Amino acid sequence: MPTTPLPLRGLDDALVQQYHRDGFLIIENVFRPDEVASLLEAVEHGDRVAKTTVAPKDATGKAAKLAIWFETGTDIWSALSTNPRLVNNVRILLGEEIAFFHGKVILKEARTGGAWEWHQDYGYWYDQGFAFPRLISASTALDPATRENGCLEVLRGSHRLGRVTHGAFGGQTGIDPVRIKALEPLFERVYCEMKPGSVLFFHSNLLHCSGPNLSAKHRRSVIMCYNALTNPLLQIGYKDSMGLTSRAETHACPVGPDDGILRAAGR
Ligand SMILES: O=C(O)CCC(=O)C(=O)O
Q1: What is the CA(199)–ligand 1 centre distance, in A?
Q2: Which domains does the chain show, CATH number per domain?
C-alpha cells in the first residue's frame, strides 16, 4: 500500500486528517538503517528483551512471543520511546500532551511465530481502567513486514465503531469471530506491509490482527504505546494474570535527543 515519507517537521494537517479518517497512518523512513540495526542488536543481545519476554499461545497453539515493559529506563528502548520522531508525532495525532504507557517487542520468528486474534488495544486497556480511548500505539518495523511473515492487518476506519466487547477467543483476549465476520464487509481490510524503519501509528480502537509467520523470514517490530497525560487510570481493582495492577506514567513523556538511539548503542 502507498505510504508517506515523514515531513521534516512532523505530520502535517493532511496526514492528521488521514489518521482521524482511517484510524492509522504508515510513515516510511522514520528511522534510518543504522538505527534499525542498533535496535535489532538490542532485540537479539540486550537484557530488556531477554528479561521481559512472554509467549501467550494463539488458537493453533503457536507462541505469539512478545517482550513487554512499563517503565522508560535509560537504555536504547528508552531512547526510542522518547525519540522526538515518535513523541512529537503522537502528540500531534492525539492533539494533547502524552505520557509513556508501555513498550513491547513483537517477536514473530520465522516458521514459529504465532498469530494475534482480532482485537482493539482499548479492548484490553478499558479493562485495565483507562477512562477514555485517548491512547496511541506507534509500531516500528525492524524487519520487512509482509503478508507472508504475518504483518499487521487492520480494518480501515474501524476505530469509529467505538469500543467493542472483548472476551476469551482462540486462547487470547479478542473480539467474537462471529461479530468480526459480520463487521468485516463494512470496512477495507489493509495488510500493513512495511519496510524496516517505517512506523505505523494507530488508534486504540482500531480493529487489528496478524497471522502466523509460516515464512522463512523473521518479522520483528517494536511498539511504543502512549496515553494522553490527562486520561485518568481508574482504580477499579484490575489485576493482570500475574496479579499486577496496571501502570502508566503520570508525567509528560520526555522528548529525548534525535540521535539518542545511536548514542545509546554507542555508535
Ligand atoms: O504486531 C503484531 O503482530 C500484533 C501486535 C498487536 O496486535 C498489538 O500489539 O496489539
Answers
A1: 13
A2: 8-253 (2.60.120.620)
